[in-house]
Amino acid sequence: MRRSMTALAAILLLAGGQAQAQTQTQPFQGKIGATLAESVEAWPAPVRAPAGAPNIVWILLDDVGFGAASAFGGGVATPRLEALAQQGLRYTNFHTTAICAPTRAALLTGRNSSSVHEAGFSHRILSAGFPGWDGHLPSSAGTIAEILRDNGYNTLAVGKYGVTPDEDATDAGPFDRWPTGKGFDHFFGFLGSQTDQYKPDLVEDQAHVAPDGRHLSEQITDKAIAFITRQQRAAPSDPVVGLAPKAPPKPFFLYYAPGATHAPHQVPAEWRDRYKGQFDAGWDVYRQQVFARQKKLGVIPANAILPDRDPTIKPWTSLSPDERKLYARFMEVYAAYLSYTDAQIGRLVDHLKQINQFDNTLFVVIIGDNGASKEGTLNGDIDRRLGAPPLDEKTNLAHNLALIDKIGTPEGVEVNYPLGWAQAANTPFRCWKQDANCEGGTRNPLILSYPKAITARGVREQYGHVIDILPTTLELAKVTAPATIRGIAQQPIEGTSLRYSIDDARAASRHRTQYYYIFGARAIYQDGWKASLAASNTLNAPPGSQVETPAWRLYDLNADPTERIDLAAKYPARLAELKRLFDHEAQAHNLYPLITWDDIQNRIRTARAGGVAR
Questions:
Q1: Cα(186)–Cα(225) distance, rounded to whole angstroms?
Q2: Domain contains 33
């Protein structure tokens, strides 16, 4: 009896503690007298999600170009993504920021990356001490997890986070910019931008943990399923046990962000040879085949024309037998990596079906946080650490051929495919990751699926940006963005909900203006027109080549969606107007000063020389 009374006392103390915490935001509505008889009790109202609120699953892949996944006509089989797309909507004019950390910051907050201090990265060497650049997400820009948790959701995140400052990313904290400090009840994944898929820098909640030797994508999927299973079993009840029946389980929000398909390209052995021989025809043939499928699917405009191969990339037919063998192997493994990731997503979907939660789940799938990666250089990358001195083409080819059997394996560190495959994976667009000036850097496929509530099917062409996902999600969940979170006034949400487009394929785009900037590469979009300026750095340029001096370009994306025809000379007044608009947007969103890759490289050189990079 004493034991049960002690347990009850503990429960009552816990309940009282919870009530005390809640009354900080809920004024007491009862009456306090000198005695209990003279007083009126008033419990804080329990936080409940809106009636019929859906579960929400955000899926964000890494470094996947527009022309990679078969769900949008690409040459890599992604049947589980195809199934989600077929039972929902494909958005074909959706955009990211062109690189990972700014995209993730914008996604999580619904604000532009520089508005939330993430114009660069949360890595000190890739950030700067200015309001738009310091890499510290402010409390005034609450995340989707904070908003949903305060509205009755359980919140879970697995995989890549990418926006915790390096100086905070130890087990000593502070933890306010870890996922658990930004609204997630649980987190399992890694905090940085890149990790080994078999030896990840792994974190669970607020501590580093040892990986178990399996591929990271399998581990995070297991953990997501375990989180959901535990959450569904733990239906909330009255704080005092036994006084009220259990309520239905809370809805959950899952942010599923695998490290795939970022380098290193690694995949389990049983997947590595599934594409053997399928890319022997090369990147030029791949681009033509994918372009034809995209036209047939209707995921690119009917008036789109495939741009010429980038002049830095050799025609496949001109390559030597050794080059073809090596480069085909790079792509075989990359394709296996993406298909394997699709299969892991399938495991998650199957679990939701098994527990009868699939129909009541809103899926938001962003296939890539930027375009395909150009970081593999012209010849591909095997075990070449970031910042290592460049090799000439002959030496690099010999180096890679000697290590060809390591591609895709746990021993294959820093494996990334060559630039020719990056352009192919971005079909039909120009350029690649980091190039905020080009659609190839910023245009990524988006899928919306909500079987219970979204009955529309097909393609949507409205212009969208990653900042639009948070307001879209809140509107579909019938949740209002708060004016304050934990007493802190919130910055305005800068995105535009896409809800208007779900049932009206012909609705005019409501997101009309958007700026882009990544370390010198920039663009400004307004109502179908786009002005852009390439970065001036020589990153990934072939050794000894001449780099063209960047100049502002002007494109009419309605007539020329693949940016082939520069109209700057024809419409100088329009270009000047858009350049002024870029300046206005940059000032309004804390983008200045404009920091370039050359600035970053100078900081790195200073640091290596023993100076202080601030």
A1: 13
A2: no
**What are the tens digits of pLDDT across the range 84-94?**
999 999 999 99
Token duo for residue 33: 């007298």
- If one counts the domains in the chain, the total is 1
In a domain? residue 604: yes
Could you report the per-residue pLDDT of 338-369, keeping only the tens digit for each?
999 999 999 999 999 999 999 999 999 999 99
Q: How many CA atoms lie within 13 A of 544 on its CB side?
A: 3
pTM for the model: 0.93
**Angle at CA 284, nearest 5°, toward 280 and 290?**
95
Neighbours of 548 (CB within 10 A): 10
- Written as one string, the DSSP assignment of 354-411 is HTT-STTEEEEEES-SSS---TTTTT-BSS--TTPPPPPHHHHHHHHHHTGGGTBSTT
Q: Does any domain span residue 40?
A: no
Which residues constitute the domain of residue 173? 55-234+248-269+283-504+512-608
Bridge partners (DSSP) of residue 203 are 189, 208
Report percent pLDDT > 70 for the chain: 91
What is the C-alpha to C-alpha distance for residues 71 and 338, in angstroms, rounded to an integer? 12
Does 175 reside within a domain? yes
Give me the helices (H) in 213-254, please: 216-233
Contacting residues for 184 by C-beta, under 8 A, at least 6 apart? 145, 149, 155, 156, 157, 255
